[in-house]
Amino acid sequence: MPLTRDQIAQRAALELRDGFLVNLGIGMPTLVANHIPAGPDGKPIEVWLQSENGLLGIGPFPTEDRVDADLINAGKQTVTALPGSSFFSSSDSFGMIRGGHIDMCILGAMQLSQDGDIANWMIPGKMVKGMGGAMDLVAGVEKVVVMMEHVSKKGEAKILKECNLPLTGKGVVDMVITDLCVMEFDPQIGRFKVTELAEGVSADEIREKTEAEIVFADELKTVGA
User: Up-side HSE of residue 178: CA atoms within 13 Å toward CB?
Assistant: First the structure.
């Protein structure tokens, strides 16, 4: 059974580590803020979420009584700020990203290639708001994790031999979490390796819905097990 968007976010949140500075892309990745995992003491680990419009310390999405229209993330969604949060200019924010100070970014994508390329900002002929910080993020962040549906609404593969949409970055994706599986890029073979499958999803289904050349780990885990 395919994972829901919330379950994909839960799995992505397991990649967070105590003390990390993390940037969440717009759309599905913002759900990760609601699933910060617990540490050995049972309390949520300390993760500082950064938004390129100038906020470090994003908390969970606000309940109706805590909505502040002036407190938004890069996707213009209202957010909360944790104690100790910092507000700064967009130029300072991009200085953090370009200077290599962000440990991880979690982004959405329209397409990925088997070489780890990502296209996530533009469909030719359609109105778009702009690149945003994606190009800087994939170039300046230590680990790039992608959350996405495995196929398009038309059932077409989104993990391809080669992207046909404008690229955001080349050879930059480290991990992909879809509604069907988890893949990690293996630099030794230059391809994605499937390491986890959603419950009820088979390796044959992944092969059928993936155009890219991929490999499978010897022992496949179940996502969330």
Answer: 25
DSSP type of residue 167: P
The sign of the dihedral angle between the CA atoms of 152, 155, 160, 162 is negative
pLDDT digits (tens, 9 = 90+) for 17-51: 999 999 998 889 989 988 999 999 999 899 999 99
Assign residue 12 the CATH number of its domain. 3.40.1080.10
pTM exceeding 0.90: yes
**Which residues are part of the catalytic machinery?**
52
Per DSSP, what are the bridge partners of residue 222?
A: 197
112-129: string of b/e by CB count within 10 Å (b at 16+)? bbbbbbbbbbbeeeeeee
The length of the chain in residues reads 225
Residues 6+ away with beta carbon under 8 Å from 88: 54, 55, 56
Instruction: Tell me phi and psi for residue 90, to 5 degrees.
Output: -60, -35
Q: How many structural domains comprise the chain?
A: 1
